[in-house]
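Why do we care about 3D structure at all? Because function follows from shape, and shape follows, mostly, from sequence. That is the central idea of this module. The next example makes it concrete: a single protein chain, its amino acid sequence, and then its structure expressed as tokens.
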Amino acid sequence: MKPTDHKEVQQMRKYEGMFIVRPDLDEDGYKALIEEIEKIFTDHGSKLTAVDVWGMKDLAYEIQDLRKGYYVVFKAEATPEAVAEYDRICNIREDVLRHIIVKEQ
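And the structure:
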């Protein structure tokens, strides 16, 4: 029996996430950002199982003097590395106002 290398075996967990994008992008900009987020997961051996675009909604409170945002909700089967990269990229991108990702029960 061959011992397993813990770095090779990555725990895939189910997550639900959401991000809010600045309202001043055009439709192509929103689609490109969603594809970029999806690529983050696929590049790290994970996948988005569902993407639900809510579209333009009022924010609960102003963020950077903005009152509206473009909402996208998704479900994923992801590795911890993919989740960390999603979080890192969303923190860097100025067009992502808020983001969150949590483990499903």
